Amino acid sequence: MALAAFLLAVCVLSSWETQGSSAVTTVFVQKGKDLHLDVNKPVVIAEFHEFNWRFNASHSLVRLSPVNTARIVDPYKGRVEFSVQNHSLLLKYVQHSDSGDYTALITGDKTEPLAEYKVIIQDPVSPVQLSVDSVSNSRESCTLTVTCSTEDSLISSTFRCDNQTCNQERGEQSKNTTSGSSLRVYLFKGSIICNHSNQVNLTSNMTEIRPLCSPTAVPSLGIPIGIGTGAAVVFGLFLGSLIWSSDVTTVFVQKGKNLHLDVNKPVVLVKYTEFRWTINNTLNVVRLFPDNTTMISSSHKGRVEFSVQNHSLLLKNVQHSDSGDCTALITGEKNQPVTEYKVIIQDPVSPVNLSVNSVSNSTESCNLTVTCSTEDSLISSTFRCDTQTCNQEGGEQSEVTTSGSSLRVYLSNDFIICNHSNQVSRTRDMKEIRPLCPLNDVPDKGTTDFNLNQTPNQNATEDASCLSPNTIYSLSGPAAPVQSTETVITPNPESIYAQITKPQSPTTN
Ligand SMILES: *[C@@H]1O[C@H](CO)[C@@H](O)[C@H](O)[C@H]1NC(C)=O
Ligand SMILES: *[C@@H]1O[C@H](CO)[C@@H](O)[C@H](O)[C@H]1NC(C)=O
Ligand SMILES: *[C@@H]1O[C@H](CO)[C@@H](O)[C@H](O)[C@H]1NC(C)=O
Ligand SMILES: *[C@@H]1O[C@H](CO)[C@@H](O)[C@H](O)[C@H]1NC(C)=O
Ligand SMILES: *[C@@H]1O[C@H](CO)[C@@H](O)[C@H](O)[C@H]1NC(C)=O
Ligand SMILES: *[C@@H]1O[C@H](CO)[C@@H](O)[C@H](O)[C@H]1NC(C)=O
Ligand SMILES: *[C@@H]1O[C@H](CO)[C@@H](O)[C@H](O)[C@H]1NC(C)=O
Ligand SMILES: *[C@@H]1O[C@H](CO)[C@@H](O)[C@H](O)[C@H]1NC(C)=O
Ligand SMILES: *[C@@H]1O[C@H](CO)[C@@H](O)[C@H](O)[C@H]1NC(C)=O
Ligand SMILES: *[C@@H]1O[C@H](CO)[C@@H](O)[C@H](O)[C@H]1NC(C)=O
Ligand SMILES: *[C@@H]1O[C@H](CO)[C@@H](O)[C@H](O)[C@H]1NC(C)=O
Ligand SMILES: *[C@@H]1O[C@H](CO)[C@@H](O)[C@H](O)[C@H]1NC(C)=O
């Protein structure tokens, strides 16, 4: 098995790895293991000469005199074994401090090196976890995004499957971690493999791709799918807007904006009671007494407006530190909550950039790959156009970024839209797809089921490439996978083209 082969390789590496042609051999050893170094040369020790194993040119580990008495130098006693026969050195239970240069040499009138090693002690690598972030399934294809992560590093990658094969977008993905190990995600025999390795150790995690992509699969995703899919989410672009959930109302506000909170209930203050707006049940932002005097906490003076009439609170220029539970209550013999809000302050989302990675076009189809990216996140997506319509492979793509915002790429009315949003703001970039995929509108023979998974009718454009005599187009379809078992008798494409009354499209060659 490959793992066995790897382990064997590790053992070889740890002991005698000889690499390069230089006289210095680099050896990697896992912390806690043994280091074995050979001389591999006849050693003749003349009178008054001495054989030495040295570390970093400064410390001796072993000294051997002509009369074959070997002496292990003090700090190494008990950790070093030395063979008087072949002069090999065994250093047990190595630690990071043992990294450095090891030299076997003979010292006489001059010092002559016999063997030189550069020893690098490495920790075993941390475990990896492979998690599935999103799966989108259509009848034709399945797209899934995974994240391979270690404690301090991660790679995301997208895989696409059609009927026959699965492919990794942009091929194997790899990354060097800060600790010098390498993280890789690749596809091998129908499995997604995530490996974390350095020269001495390997951890891996894998998952079979098909069970995730089968139409009935309901994978449990690592990250919830993007917002805005019909949930009762209200975007609060200016003042805080509200999401009702049980008794507590969640309010998202953009940093720097004003937060307005209402009570929406009659408040009656009898003697010895008071009304308060509190944050996190500790900070009394506003206090109102039965005689209508108010007290604003010093921490919020100048930033708060309070209405004695309706008891609403306006908190100006909110900052992240204003996040928390904001409660209106009446205190008396016991505290009686009136209204509760959970306030979440969000930064506006960063700008997005939609860029085209590749276009491949023929006369009857065009494939386009785009990347929708923000400063710290990206999604790639592939679009396929035939002469009639454009489709997004795997449908809309979305991802939740590390900051909790949602990044989406989708097709709408012939525009590719890259949208970055959170509850309080959004940015978008878009590109019209047709100018990028200029097709000669030459219908070609094809299957009759080309309407499957077609996006909702594209909007009419000046260039009538998508419209025109339906009776003719209904016979034609994409040139793509021709699976039809019937023979479709198709007139010469040029003659069909000639029948369509439409403006001359620009010639593309
Ligand atoms: C990744 O790990 C698997 C199993 O642990 C192993 O079989 C495979 O060879 C590794 N791949 C690479 C490229 O190291
Ligand atoms: C040298 O001797 C040691 C201990 O006897 C042995 O483990 C090692 O394999 C030998 N090395 C060579 C190159 O013969
Ligand atoms: C030995 O030398 C290496 C560089 O060659 C250095 O990184 C390491 O700290 C040195 N170790 C000791 C114990 O001096
Ligand atoms: C996919 O496979 C099914 C059955 O295996 C077949 O009916 C269908 O035509 C195939 N579709 C494509 C696009 O290859
Ligand atoms: C990782 O480091 C190795 C050696 O320094 C280098 O060859 C390789 O290109 C790096 N890989 C990546 C993905 O940066
Ligand atoms: C990696 O190191 C860990 C911890 O020492 C060990 O349990 C594991 O077997 C090692 N894996 C390989 C492939 O050497
Ligand atoms: C991958 O990691 C997950 C979670 O840590 C674990 O449940 C699963 O068994 C691992 N799979 C393999 C093949 O190591
Ligand atoms: C306090 O102000 C409210 C609203 O203006 C008013 O209805 C109420 O009578 C006032 N109470 C006192 C004690 O002045
Ligand atoms: C309220 O508590 C949350 C976390 O529980 C904290 O992030 C926030 O800063 C607190 N707000 C205030 C105003 O103390
Ligand atoms: C677009 O991709 C499809 C499926 O991978 C392929 O059949 C078609 O030939 C491609 N078209 C171009 C112009 O590359
Ligand atoms: C593909 O598109 C390019 C640029 O729009 C155009 O120059 C080229 O002729 C097209 N190729 C075909 C086969 O339509
Ligand atoms: C076409 O575009 C117009 C204006 O942009 C829009 O009002 C209309 O709903 C669109 N029609 C379709 C079918 O998308």
Query: What's the tally of helices?
Result: 4
- Name every ligand kind in the structure: 2-acetamido-2-deoxy-beta-D-glucopyranose
> Would you identify the regions where 5 or more consecutive residues have pLDDT less than 50?
1-22, 215-246, 442-509
Strand tally is 35
How would the global form be characterised? flat
Compute the separation of the termini in Å.
Answer: 52 Å
Helix-strand makeup class: mainly beta
Question: Can you walk through the features of this model?
Answer:
It is built from 4 helices and 35 strands. Strands 18-19-27-26-21-22-23 form a 7-stranded mixed beta sheet, with no helix packed on it. It folds into 4 domains: 2-122, Immunoglobulin-like (Sandwich), CATH 2.60.40; 129-213, no CATH class; 241-342, Sandwich (Immunoglobulin-like), CATH 2.60.40.10; 347-509, no CATH class. Helices cover 6% and strands 43% of the residues. Mean pLDDT is 75; it is low at 1-22, 215-246 and 442-509. The protein is mostly beta strands. The structure holds 2-acetamido-2-deoxy-beta-D-glucopyranose (12 copies). Residues 291-292, 308-309 line the site of one 2-acetamido-2-deoxy-beta-D-glucopyranose (NAG).
Quick summary:
The protein has helices at residues 2-16, 210-213, 470-473, 493-499; strands spanning 24-30, 35-37, 50-55, 59-64, 70-72, 80-82, 89-91, 100-107, 111-122, 129-137, 142-150, 153-161, 166-168, 173-176, 182-188, 191-197, 202-208, 241-245, 248-254, 259-261, 274-279, 283-288, 294-296, 304-306, 313-315, 324-331, 335-346, 353-361, 366-374, 377-385, 390-392, 397-400, 406-412, 415-421, 426-432. With 509 residues, it is mainly β.
